[in-house]
Amino acid sequence: MPKATLKHLAIIMDGNGRWAKARGLNRTKGHEKGIEVIRDVTTYCAKHPTVESVTFYAFSTENWKRPKYEVDFLMRLLDRYLEEELATYHANNVRFQAIGNIDALSPKLQARIRKTEEETRHHTDLTHILALNYGGRAEITMAVNKLIYEGKRELDEADISHALQTPYSDIDLLIRTSGEERVSNFLLWQISYAEFYFSQTYWPDFNRDELDEIITDFEQRTRRFGGLK
Ligand code: IPE
Ligand code: IPE
Ligand code: MG
Question: Which active-site residues does the annotation give?
């Protein structure tokens, strides 16, 4: 019997650039390969009996510091990914949602995001959330400002939870690939009691067999939430 149940999985997909460099390839090749892994992991999660949501970190508010050609490449890649993914979302009963400051993206990508959200909104096996131009601090700040504009004078935790952009649920398990062990401004509010798993694998080499092992490991963990059991 599993001790812990995985409902909301979050993934910091890291190591695309190092994967490419190790092969003498341009960093962009790592991003291309990484996109295929998102597809595979999403299909896996849609079929998993307990997973309800999976949130992928695709582009952070800090990633604008990268060279323009890499940023432009990533944006085009995401647009193409969403275009191709629509059929897969329908086939697997997956709902798509984006979080982050979407308004700052190109009008073309914004339109693609809104269209994909709209056309998949009735799907129920899995919610697939892409964090795009996302920062945890920005999300919390936005939530607090929203509540101020609504006229709130005093906030409790539930107010903030519900004002966040992320369709609200706490993260059960956060995976980061590539051996880096940091949070990089991802879902700061929602990971307060998440279990962490740091994989040495570069994201383009990650696969469903490793995910299966990680979930089995997670399910054996005792989550105490401050209590004694
Ligand atoms: C993660 O891989 C993808 C994005 C941040 C878009 P990186 O591009 O950060 O790869 P490394 O960390 O340089 O290897
Ligand atoms: C975090 O990866 C952001 C995404 C995966 C989108 P980075 O590679 O940008 O993080 P740092 O800079 O190493 O912390
Ligand atoms: Mg990185």
Answer: 14, 63
Choosing from 11, 12, 13, 14 the residue with most ligand 1 atoms within 8 A of its CB, the one to mutate for a pocket test is 14
Report the candidate in 198, 132, 126 with the shortest Cα–Cα distance to residue 165.
Answer: 132
51 CB within 6 A, ligand 2: no
The whole-model pTM stands at 0.97
Ligand 2 within 6 A of CB of 13: yes
Ligand lying nearest the CA atom of residue 22: 1
Q: Given a cut of 70, is residue 167 above it in pLDDT? A: no
Closest of 202, 197, 157 to residue 6, by C-alpha: 197
> Atom 9 of ligand 2 has which residue's CA nearest to it?
63
Nearest CA to ligand 2 atom 10: 184
- Match 């299909």 to its residue by tokens: 43
* Helix (H), strand (E) at residue 35: helix 27-47
pLDDT in tens, 42-101: 999 999 999 999 999 999 999 999 999 999 999 999 999 999 999 999 999 999 999 999
Q: How many helices (H) and strands (E) does the chain have?
A: 7, 6
Which DSSP helix (H) or strand (E) runs through 80? helix 68-92
